[in-house]
Each structure stands twice: as structure tokens, then as C-alpha cells.
Amino acid sequence: KAGVTQTPRYLIKTRGQQVTLSCSPISGHRSVSWYQQTPGQGLQFLFEYFSETQRNKGNFPGRFSGRQFSNSRSEMNVSTLELGDSALYLCASSLDRRQYEQYFGPGTRLTVT
Amino acid sequence: GQQLNQSPQSMFIQEGEDVSMNCTSSSIFNTWLWYKQDPGEGPVLLIALYKAGELTSNGRLTAQFGITRKDSFLNISASIPSDVGIYFCAGQLGDNFNKFYFGSGTKLNVKP
Fold this sequence. Notes:
The structure holds 2 protein chains of 2 kinds.
Chain A: E1 5-7, E2 10-13, E3 19-24, E4 31-38, E5 42-50, E6 53-57, E7 64-68, E8 74-78, E9 87-94, E10 103-104, E11 108-112
Chain B: E1 5-7, E2 10-14, E3 19-24, E4 31-37, E5 44-49, E6 55-58, E7 61-65, E8 71-76, E9 85-92, E10 100-102, E11 106-111
Parallel strand pairs in B: 2-11
Antiparallel strand pairs in B: 1-3, 3-8, 4-5, 4-9, 6-7, 7-8, 9-10, 9-11
């Protein structure tokens, strides 16, 4: 079974721009979660989607948004990029049938200049 | 937000030694997951724990779900150079939602 895939793997953007990251979960997994990882703050939960609905949300500003499609693929968008948004963005998927093991993708390394 | 205190922050050990690390919290968790992350990659799931007191092994790795449900432990026996990496614990508070809180990680260095 293919693992979680994320595209692109690396991205360089300028302050003020917006960016869209994509995540394809493991086949059959319906829950997709997004995390931001930085050296200073560690792994922080952004949001979780299930059946095209945002079910959980972390403490991030409204510039961070996401969506999920009917095939469970998910995208996250960051608008008006700031330098502090530079991070590794990780996507994780799970079956969500009382087994909450989350499987991570390789991440997208976003650098904001 | 919830805080998971993971310790130690880093470890320098000799190949062949055993390793222990743990995560504690003031909150009660329903699920504990342990991950290993290599540089530039996503975390890889090592062990999942669902019941208080549960002890689960995966090769040389053994993890336990604390009986108070506020802590978890990971042990690695007979460490080898490829064990180098950052180990994270993750805890889930609610029963129905995939919201996990992560520890700050334990960086493991193994000298051959």
C-alpha cells in the first residue's frame, strides 16, 4: 500500500504571497491532519479533516486554512505569508475506526523569504 | 494547549546500550503513539498504545501506557547506529477525534 504523499516537497515563497500544499492519504484512510513543525515550537496541530469537514482545529490564525475532497485528498493554504511561517508542514492520515494511529507523509519544507 | 513533557531532551549512548525515554502530562490520555523522525523526513510510527497498563513491543522497542494514563515510556534495547534520530511521543485526549499533542522530542545519538 502506498504511503502518505505530499507535494511539493520543497517550496520557496516571498512574504505576502500565498501557498497551497497538497496531501494524498493512504488508500482507505478518511481522516487527514495537518501539522506545522519548527525547531522552536516542535510539532503543532493545525487542523483535521474527515469526510470533507473540518473536525478539529488548532490555535493558528485564519491565514491557515484547509479543505478535503471527496477522495480524501486534502489541501492546506496559507495566505499572506510571513517569515515565521517557514517550517516543515506535515500531513498525517488515519483510518478513524477507533484506531487512531496516524501515518505521516514526508512533509513539505516551506521557506518564506 | 496541552503540554507533554518529554525527557530526556537528548541522549548520547554507546552502541549496544539500552535506552529509556518518557512522556508525562497533567492530563489523562486515551491513546499514546511513539514516532521516530529522521532529518528531513516525516515521523514514522513505531508503537501505538490504547489501554492503561498496556505493554507493547516492536522488535527491540518496548513501550508502555502508564496506569495513571498520564504518562508513557519507550525503551530501546541493544541500540545500534541506525537508531539515531528524534523520538516523539504523541497523546490523544478525546475519544472520537484525531487530535494529538506531541512531546518536544528526544534526540538520540549512538556511538558505534
